[in-house]
Write a structure and sequence with these properties.
The protein has about 250 residues and is an alpha+beta fold. It contains nine helices and eight strands. It is about 30% helix and about 15% strand.
């Protein structure tokens, strides 16, 4: 009988420390920063930690304003598909403390990890700044090189809307992912954004989905770990951000 209870105890302990699938994705996506999971906490290489799940039920607005890390996986990101009309905002829910921990707590800290690269040297030849965290600068160079071999994309990737900019998202108190140097907005002239189209900032507004970006271009970004804002109900079709955990 004692042996039985001992085995049960071992099983319960192992189960309690089992790493959730989405945490495994985070560890794989950010190996330089995230090293473990214990007692409902994400463990970073410097031995600091962040709570993974606050176990709270939230409205859609609360998910945007006060998400935990687990909430970032609330919706499944679907890769670009010609038949897809987005019904959810997979990737738009972001825990600010998590991203600050990965990329930097302040503008100066983020900037200290930035580097300048040449975006699409053949087609565009534009200087942009991106973060070196997790080798994202090297990933963007590979992305850029592949796009450079597709001249049909030139009008979309010329005069890109921006990369690094420490700022809030329009109409919110939430920090934009442009603040971390891992987001790229392509040419705004061939893009659609829900706030522009509804001329409002009301999250509950009824939207008619619009997009001009070729899905072949989107698929190249996705190949290198970037999710697309055009896959959101609240669409932002110029917007690509490095979120490989949502593509695993």
């Amino acid at each position: 009988m004692k042996r039985f209870f001992f085995l049960v105890l071992i099983f319960q302990n192992a189960f309690s420390q089992e790493i959730p699938l989405n945490v495994q994705k985070l560890i794989k996506a950010y190996p330089d920063q995230i090293v473990d999971y214990k007692d409902n906490k994400i463990i970073f290489r410097d031995k600091s930690n962040l709570i993974y799940d606050d176990f709270k039920n939230k409205t859609n607005q609360e998910l945007l304003d006060n998400p935990d890390i687990e909430d970032q996986f609330k919706f499944v990101y679907n890769k670009a598909d010609k038949n897809l009309i987005p019904k959810e905002d997979a990737g738009r829910i972001r825990n600010e403390a998590f991203f600050k921990k990965i990329y930097g707590n302040s503008k100066s800290e983020v900037e200290s990890k930035m580097t300048e690269i040449i975006w699409c040297p053949k087609l565009v030849n534009q200087k942009i700044k991106v973060t070196t965290v997790n080798g994202i600068d090297k990933i963007v160079k590979k992305l850029s090189a592949e796009l450079d071999n597709n001249p049909e994309f030139k009008k979309y990737i010329t005069n890109i809307g921006g990369t690094f900019s420490w700022r809030k998202i329009s109409g919110t108190n939430r920090l934009s992912t442009h603040s971390y140097g891992m987001t790229i907005d392509i040419n705004v002239k061939n893009s659609n954004y829900w706030q522009w189209d509804c001329k409002c900032k009301n999250e509950e507004v009824t939207l008619s989905y619009r997009n001009q970006i070729p899905l072949k271009l989107v698929s190249i970004f996705e190949k290198y770990g970037f999710i697309w804002g055009g896959n959101w109900k609240h669409y932002d079709t110029m917007h690509f951000e490095y979120r490989p955990e949502l593509l695993l």
